[in-house]
Design a protein that fits this description.
96 residues; alpha/beta; Transcription Regulator spoIIAA; five-stranded mixed sheet
């Protein structure tokens, strides 16, 4: 997995699959929050899954830190996972 940042947008290339990926995502999101981002866009052009730790962290950012996260997915499997977990509205999920 690799992350690129552009303003308040994070693009995650590859599949999100382990705790190292979680820590990398967490560090990048926290840096955006500390720099004053009012909302964060996360694009996952390749990932077909998302670990529970990343999901939990995103929920914490949205409800505790009060920073909206918009997740853009390409893979139908990831979209279905987030739909099954009733997170489409919470993460403002969109297919692209």
């Amino acid at each position: 997995m690799e992350i690129k940042r552009n303003g308040s947008e994070i693009i995650i290339s590859g599949n999100i699959k382990n705790t190292t990926d979680y820590q990398t995502i967490k560090d990048n999101v926290n840096e955006l929050i500390k720099s004053g981002s009012k909302s964060i866009i996360v694009k996952t052009p390749e990932s077909f899954s998302m670990t529970s730790s990343v999901i939990g962290f995103f929920i914490k950012v949205i409800f505790q830190d009060k920073v909206p996260i918009h997740v853009y997915v390409k893979d139908d499997r990831l979209y279905s996972l987030l739909e099954d977990l009733n997170l489409l509205d919470t993460f403002k999920v969109q297919k692209y």
